[in-house]
Amino acid sequence: MTMPVMEPALDAALLRDWARAIDEGPFSSLCWGERIAFGNPDSLTLLGAVSAWTQRVRLVTTVIVPQLHDPVMLAKALATGDLLSNGRLTVGIGVGGRHEDYNAVGADPKTQTMRGMAERVAVMKRVWAGEKITESVLPVGPSPVQAGGPPLHVGTIGPKTVRSAAAWADGMAGTTLDLDVAKQNELFDVARTSWAEASKPAPHLATSFWFAFGSPDDARAQVHRHLRRYMNWIPAEFVDAMAPTTGWAGTERELVTVLRQFAEIGTDEVHLIPTSSDIDQLRRAADAVAAL
Questions:
Q1: pLDDT of 275 strictly over 90
Q2: Whose CA is closest to 86, among 133, 146, 148, 27?
Q3: Which helix or strand (DSSP H or E) is residue 207 part of?
Q4: I want to staple 94 with a disulfide (CB 3.0 to 4.6 A). Which of 40, 63, 150, 216 is the partner?
Q5: What is the residue range of 287's domain?
Q6: pLDDT at 53 over 90
Q7: CA angle, 165 as apex, 120 and 200 as ends, to 5°?
């Protein structure tokens, strides 16, 4: 379950209530995404909070863009999150899709490549291994609880990116706009093959989609409102055109059917993305997941 970090009018109490309800529910992970030029909470600050608010679920960043951060400081922050959560952190990372976020922090958009990301991942792994990367007296700490650092999942929807990530990633955290299970399985097959060719264990396979509960019209309208807000870098007419077929809207029973379809192709996790901060949406999703 994803935190409603891209919704308006957030406060500490609402975020805490969501985190604790996710931890108490049937969900395997608590997820949240990163944007810079937007009203969402800072991802690394939130990592500290959800580490304290939860005890059971894994904590998954979906996704952090390492090119927007100094890699040493990012490694230190994530190792701290792994320490505070007692080894429950999984780091989803990607190149990001918005130049405005790069510009907001003075990052070079030319680094918005898989090579640029892989170079920063290499630095982070050196930090987590306890290597001195400068002539400092001591290496950069703390040491992560998970040996070698938290698992890394590449956030992508493209086969080329999946293949290039096999060298350093432990899995993938994709997304599906139209819930095309067959198309998602094709991408999973690329990951399975790429990891095998790299002589690595089978990858963790995750995807995600937006959801809304309610009557057909109300639930679909909720998804549409969310997309209009979240996809504010895309012309509104394009968002309006894609909204009727993007994400999922319906009843608990219908969601169970969709989740089972993804399970049948070997999906390890589906990261559900709320389109409202109404905690009743979370509770309804918990009821559906508990029925699986």
A1: yes
A2: 146
A3: strand 204-213
A4: 63
A5: 12-291
A6: yes
A7: 115
Helices 252-264/181-197 angle, 10° precision: 30
Yes or no: say if 111 and 94 are a contact pair by the CB < 8 Å rule.
no
What average pLDDT does this structure show over 156-173?
A: 94
Q: For residue range 80-98, what is the model confidence (pLDDT) as tens digits?
A: 999 999 999 999 999 998 9
In a domain, 77, yes or no: yes
Provide the pLDDT for residue 21: 98
Quick one: how far is CA 255 from the chain centroid? 20
Say what the alpha-carbon torsion angle 227, 37, 78, 107 is, to the nearest 10 degrees.
130
Asked, for residue 5, whether it belongs to a domain, the answer is no
Classify 270 as helix, strand or coil. Answer: strand
217 sits in which H/E element: helix 216-230
Q: How far is it, in rounded angstroms, from Cα 259 to Cα 277?
A: 22
Is the overall model pTM greater than 0.85, yes or no? Answer: yes
Q: Two tokens at 89?
A: 């952190």
Our CA angle for 36, 41, 45, nearest 5°, is 105
Distance CA 151, CA 170 (A): 6
Reported as a single tens digit per residue, the pLDDT across 129-157 is 999 999 999 999 999 999 999 999 999 88
Q: Is residue 202 part of a domain?
A: yes
| C-alpha distance across the termini of the chain, in Å | 15
